[in-house]
Amino acid sequence: MNSRVLPLETSSAAIDAERGRIFVGSSSGGLYCLRASDGHVFWRHDFGSSVSSRPLYDPAKDVVYFGSDDGYVYCLLGRSGRILWKSDLKAEVVNEPRLTQEALYVTAADGTVAALNNSTGQMIWSYRKNPPTGFTSFGHPGVALVENKLATGFATGEVVVLDASDGAVIWERDLGEDVNVHADQSGSAPLLDVDATPVVDGDTVYAASLAGGLYALDLSSGSVRWRRNDITQATGITLDSGMLYVSRAASGITAVDARDGSTLWNRRFDAGVLTTPILYNDIILLADSQGGVYAVRQGDGEFLEQVKTGEGFFAPLAIYKNWAFALSNGGTLLALLIH
Q: Which of 22, 115, 139, 246: disulfide with 13, CB 3.0–4.6 Å?
């Protein structure tokens, strides 16, 4: 398991829109079920280990799936928090799972991708890519799922597309193959990690390496359609109406035309690590590891507002009606009214 000097909250809220509930994890070791309107705690389940992943709520079964830093994936009953099953991946799980009618797909910090039976937690298959030696970044990507294909990335700088039915490799692509990985005069070397969860649209996979840049890849073959090697340090990618919105550590956010990779606009922030952009109508919302939540206009990147909280954010925001929920690294869950 990764040790952490300071508490970092990375569990974004999962929304039960029908019942007005939110589910969110905590570094203190619990998963909370709260009333969205006022934060009233319906129940809390303590696992004795940080819950870093964003939960996934299934309204059809009233169950919530999530991973914990103890290496287990859990399935809890939404109305009570009772554990229905747990499955041991033996490495911390820090991303939101993906769900199909039969399977739950998860990634773990040691480079494991696994498919679990969503009713029992039994392992269907697993795939693992050994992490590189030396330093890697803090982030870990989740999986994108489309047409029985899974796309994800690794600390090695590689993107892999797997067959969702059996975990077989369809293709692999190294996004940092031409990056000079030797340390500079300051002693630092570029990190190749794929931290942002890939995005799939139609027959194209959009993925990014911290040092290798932003790519558009063919879903079937992995061939490069276009590349922007100047759009580095990507921490999150969101696609909407043919535009990619890429949050970038220590840089800000860049809007890119998904067809050809051309830049529409850039908005720089005096910021640390930015969370994955979240869209609400024509507004882009994202938070900053050094403190604060930003709102910019989707069409042109115009800065609209900043909410300064004095606490950093690693957890992406979640939207419910016209509220944005943000979990700070200080363990405070904020409900921000969007207007």
A: 22
